[in-house]
Amino acid sequence: MLPRRLRLLVILVVIEVYAASFVPLYNIAGESALNVFCLVSAIAGALLGVRGGLFVAVVGLLLHALPFGVLNAVDPSIVSPAAAGTYALAVVAIAIGFGLMEEWRARARTANAANRLGAGELRNAMSQLPMALFTLDRRGAFTMAEGHALERMGMRAGAVVGESIFEHWSAKPEITASVRRALAGETVTATSDLGHATVQATYAPLRSAAGVIDGVVAVGLDVTDQNAARKELEQVSQRDALTGLPNRAGLMRRLEAMLPAARHETALLLLDLDRFKDVNDAIGHAAGDELLRGVGERVFAFLGVRHQAGRLGGDEFAIVAPDTDERSATVLARTISDAIRAPFTIGGQELYATASVGIAIGPRDGADAATLLRKAEVAMYDAKRRGSAWALYAPAADEPSAATLALTADLRRAIESNELGLAFQPIVDCASGKVLRFETLARWSRRDREVPPSEFIPLAERVGLLTALTDWVVAASVRQLRAWLSAGLDARITVNLSPRNLLEPDLPRRIASALEAAKVPAERFGIEVTETSVMTDPERASRTIAELRELAIPIAIDDFGAGHSSLAYLHRLPISTVKIDKSLVRGIRTNESAREIVRATIDLAHALDFSVVAEGVEDAETLELVRSFGCDQAQGFHVARPVGAADAVRLLRER
């Protein structure tokens, strides 16, 4: 079609020629000659739209003015003024009418082209994304099926149009139920295995402009690869990196699944290497790891087809044996114990190891995994006490004394009734003596005596009160810290965690909740974990420490030098401070070797960008020595003994 301007020019030329020849044409054709211009005006509107048609009509009428004048001069009765006006209005109306029709048609053509383009773009996009798009009518019949995911679902685009989804996927109740719910007005998401794909689809009601539900629209995403990656990640997270066996979480999950499915009794054997710490001290951690791998291989070698072994952490292993009675479990324990006694060759030398095995039988000793594991642990410690290779769980070994029962009841009541207390030991800057923060220490004043932490904290661990005790200490500490901050004091606090705390997956969440409740900035609340607690189960401890650090909580390694880890290993953890154990610090006044160890530890820690605290500073000479070594901070009785909250305020203001 000609361009718009060229079309306008052609029509104007036609009108001009027509106007010039109008008089003779009128003499020949009469009033029919007027209809020619009406037709031209209609064509102009149809081709040029309202504005173009109106322009042509007005110009044409002006050009006709002269011929009309000539005709009127010859015979005034030929064209009356009223007829001329009517004619002019007719011409304008025809131009506008046909112009509107053209514009409506143009809009319709544009909309149709846009729809075709949009549909094409949609099909093109859907053909490249791992998705599928379905629309259904009220009866559940497919009205559209597009998307790249269709191929993996065993379908072709458009092939199912007209077919009922209730018949096509009649064996997939999650799909048919979701469609019915969407037809009822709900938006539903469901995951289904379709063909070679796992599809996560969202079904929503498809409504008309009036809001009436006309059908269903469903968008499915092919999540096959994501599911495979998630399953692989779950497998990795439930497997011990050192031995390749399931870790605690993985084995406990398997045990929970086995217990209800077992046709008969299920045995749980808990194996703990004897004096493994001594082995580690003698041959080093690398060789100790080799020994653990060797133990894992020997344990695995004696498993039955349905048995499952795992490493719980440290030097603890466990075996789940379904459909195994007491007699068969003791035979298995004796066999594995004998296998471990055989020498291991590590680093060219022979090493000997022994193990103590505790046996619990479910459901007799426990109907759930946690109870069965606790009973097996009781039996294992019973075997160690008696010097036996193995022991069956016996209720007598699990019966605490009357005094222990009373102490346990009092501790539970003290935690619940807020009867415990806190003391605060200052940690100061070596150079200036300024108090930088306080280490929080739990205290318990029982009716008859002061119960030392060395007594009630292990008790809390044994009787299952550790989590409650930790939560109390954290909550009380952040409340005190909030009070100091509200008073305008520049205060910080650190809290010690038990090795078992690091194995609690919800610990970071609980601490975060306590900080939020007290409106305490996380960077003012620190956590101290001992070196040995990190090494007990490095994988799980590292995960917990990382989650705490993500909250912006500073992490310190306590009692460094008392265990056998290295700063190089600790550098992998997101910690900020290393506290040198008092057993090393106390010896630097009289022992040259101790001085060199402490000096080297400080230098290496600084090289790794850790700050260093010297613990156990109990005299001025020791303080001066650690200061000369470049130690950043000090803690100990010479610096300040643990104090109550009021004295802590005084120290903050004085120093």
Description:
The chain is an alpha/beta fold. It folds into 4 domains: 118 residues; 101 residues, Beta-Lactamase (2-Layer Sandwich), CATH 3.30.450.20; 158 residues, Reverse transcriptase/Diguanylate cyclase domain (Alpha-Beta Plaits), CATH 3.30.70; 250 residues, TIM Barrel (Alpha-Beta Barrel). The strands form 4 sheets. An 8-stranded mixed beta barrel has the order 13-14-16-17-18-19-20-21, surrounded by 5 helices. β1 and β2 form a beta hairpin. α2 packs across α3 and α14 packs across α15. The radius of gyration is 44 Å and the shape is globular. 34% of the residues are buried. About 1% of the residues have low confidence.
| Shape annotation | globular
Helix fraction by DSSP (H/I, runs of at least 4): 40-55%
Number of separate strands? 21
Largest sheet descriptor: 8 strands, mixed, barrel
User: For the terminal residues, how far apart are their CA atoms?
Assistant: 92 Å
Uncertain runs are: 113-119
User: In the CATH hierarchy, what is the class of the largest domain?
Assistant: Alpha Beta
Strand order of the largest sheet: 13-14-16-17-18-19-20-21
Number of helices: 24
Count of domain modules? 4
Regarding quaternary structure, what we see is single chain
* CATH third-level topology of the largest domain: TIM Barrel
Task: Estimate the strand proportion.
Answer: 15-25%
Which architecture of the largest domain does the CATH hierarchy give at level 2? Alpha-Beta Barrel
* Structural class designation: alpha/beta
Average pLDDT across residues? Answer: 80
User: Radius of gyration, rounded?
Assistant: 44 Å
